[in-house]
């Protein structure tokens, strides 16, 4: 995805500086102003304002003026102009903050849930795994005995943790059968190799499988 970062200007207010004479032609009530706010955006979504400026022009002589060209009273009148609310200019930052809060909350909830589920495994549980080579995958529990847990590993790996859930499809589990002791499963969790557990509401019935790759610890 391509993100474009830049700045844009937004016209927040227009008007006339009342009872103020043009510095050049000396005609009163001819100084028109336009106030702009500059904001940073990412892919057209406003993040936050970074400054403001004003354009001033006399409607009589058409001369353009800077803020510093005005008298002290004219400058004060501009400073006292009430501008429209620019909360929308923070919309991107607000969205990013909410996304971060949501992500942190989800991470904490997942960790809490995983800490509970790892101690009471059930048939049908799907474990998200993190391998030492940096890849991610899943395995699901097929059968549980007093001391052992029998699983089928996913045939596919993912590069990023958020891609792992998409791998959890029935057709992605074939014959990669691996058995673990319950102690070994807890060690995988403590070593952050099991990073998430998903449990269906109605676990599948246990089936008999032939496990060709026993793992003992």
Describe this protein's structure.
The chain has 2 domains: 90 residues, no CATH class; 96 residues, no CATH class. The protein has 3 helices and 10 strands, in the order ββββααββββαββ. It has a 6-stranded mixed β-sheet with strand order 9-5-6-7-8-10. It has a 4-stranded antiparallel β-sheet with strand order 1-2-3-4. β2 and β3 form a beta hairpin. It is rod-shaped.
Keywords:
217 residues; 2 domains; four-stranded antiparallel β-sheet; 3 helices; 20% helix; Zinc-ribbon 15 domain-containing protein; membrane
Give a concise summary.
With 217 residues, this protein is α+β, with helices and mostly antiparallel strands.
Q: Mind summarizing the main beta sheet? A: 6 strands, mixed
How many helices? The count is 3
Oligomeric state of the chains in view: single chain
**N-to-C span:** 44 Å
Determine the strand fraction and express it as a percent band.
35-45%
Kindly provide the radius of gyration, computed on alpha-carbon positions and rounded to a whole number of angstroms. Answer: 32 Å
Which ranges are low-confidence, i.e. pLDDT below 50, for 5 or more consecutive residues? 202-213
Which percent range fits the helix content?
10-25%
Number of DSSP-assigned strands: 10
Note the overall shape.
Answer: rod-shaped
**Arithmetic mean of pLDDT:** 87
Number of domains: 2
**Structural class by SSE content:** alpha+beta
What spatial order of strands do you see in the largest sheet? 9-5-6-7-8-10
Order of helices and strands: EEEEHHEEEEHEE
Protein name: Zinc-ribbon 15 domain-containing protein
Transmembrane segments: 87-108
Keywords: Membrane, Transmembrane, Transmembrane helix
Organism: Flavobacterium anhuiense
